[in-house]
Automatic annotation (TrEMBL):
The chain crosses the membrane at residues 291-311, 340-361, 414-437. This is Protein translocase subunit SecD. It is a multi-pass membrane protein. Residues 92-150 form the Protein translocase subunit SecDF P1 domain. Belongs to the SecD/SecF family. SecD subfamily. GO terms for cellular component: plasma membrane. Keywords: Cell membrane, Membrane, Protein transport, Translocation, Transmembrane, Transmembrane helix, Transport. It is found in: Cell membrane. InterPro entries: SecD, SecD/SecF_arch_bac, SecD/SecF_CS, SecD_1st, SecD_SecF_C, SecD_SecF_C_bact, SecDF_P1_head. Forms a complex with SecF. Part of the essential Sec protein translocation apparatus which comprises SecA, SecYEG and auxiliary proteins SecDF. Other proteins may also be involved. Pfam families: Sec_GG (PF07549), SecD_1st (PF21760), SecD_SecF_C (PF02355), SecDF_P1_head (PF22599). It comes from Candidatus Woykebacteria bacterium RBG_13_40_15.
Amino acid sequence: MKSPRVLLLTIVGLTCLAVLVDWPNVPIRFSAGPIKVNTVLAGPKIDWNVFGFEFKRDLDVKLGLDLKGGTSLTLKADVSDIAQSDRDKALEAAKEVIDRRINLFGVTEPIIQTSKVGGDYRIIVELPGVTNLENARQLVGQTAKLEFREFINPADATSTIPTIKNTKPTGISGKDLKTAAVDYQQGDTENKGGPVVRFELKSESANKFSAVTRSLIGKPLIVFLDDIPVSAPIVKTEIGKEGVITGLTSEEAKRLSIQLSAGALPVKKIDIISERTLGPTLGKTSIDRSLVAGIIGFTVIALFMAIYYGLVGILADIALVLYALFVLALFKIIPVTLTLAGIAGFILSIGMAVDANILIFERMKEELRAGRNRIQAIEIGFTRAWSSIRDSNVSSLITSGILFWFGTGSVRGFAIALAIGILVSMLTAITVTRNLLRVVYRG
């Protein structure tokens, strides 16, 4: 058994690290004559590169949709033309495409999950900080099936609006694209200075595109997106590996480049079956109320422990403070996206941490009544309470695992927060409280 003082120093070291990780961004504004200070005392950032392995964290608290505000969409995938055995794979592939689109768009900490309800295949998308519902709809709701087509009857090129019926495929589609990016047209063109999507084809598709454009010189090459014509430029010369799509606004060009870079959804179509937007004001109100509830609950528990158990209760309160520091540090490092349900799981785990201490202290009382001295009561009390604490926490961890595996959205957030809280509470109840008692009573 290690010396209590060595363990105490280890606990102090871990506490200092937790405080460093938990340190919030504190604005400092000071003015005295010519001296002016306007800065932010920020917490640390992790940027490690060990043997080529990079690990980066900004150590900010990641807030979920219900706390930060944003948009939530529930999508229904049409998988009717996909074999039953391949539908789950297609849904996962669609989720990955949507994930790539959102990451390219710059949304931080999105939550994207698949769900099967009866015969419906669904994707749940939560975008914290995104309050433009129309942008969110078009970003994730389009299948982004890009196709280059030509008129069946060349005479229609001068007077007919292109449709799927009066055009035919050229054999070039979004699958042939290597990259796509927004650019602004230069040179002597009708669209000079306007946004375009500049694309590059894969090497194996370049010859095919050259042959198509060679045969269409002087004729339109029509670009269809999800069976809707978006551009019909006249081919002036043979085009090899690169080309542009014109006729778009800046927002449309950005969205199309993202969709093409991420790829088309591998399903027939996607329907939005529910949508909601939560403003940041409601999120701030939720945070404020949660903080008040947490502080009140923490204070009441700490007072109860101190009044009912005296010195050992105060030591348990110290362990409880360390518990809160350790859990918040883990939330930041992992990182865990914090939601209202996650806060509820965290507060619940505080009660479970106290419950472990109460079991231990009651066991200690029994040993003292049996005539044991204080040191013996501490050791025997912890030993005999351990099996009850272990079984209780393992049962709760199993429940958390089931909730995480079968749940979605906020249910998963609750399960993660509860599981982390349970694991840390076992450390603080068994190791921290026990070591503090040894140091105090053994000296």
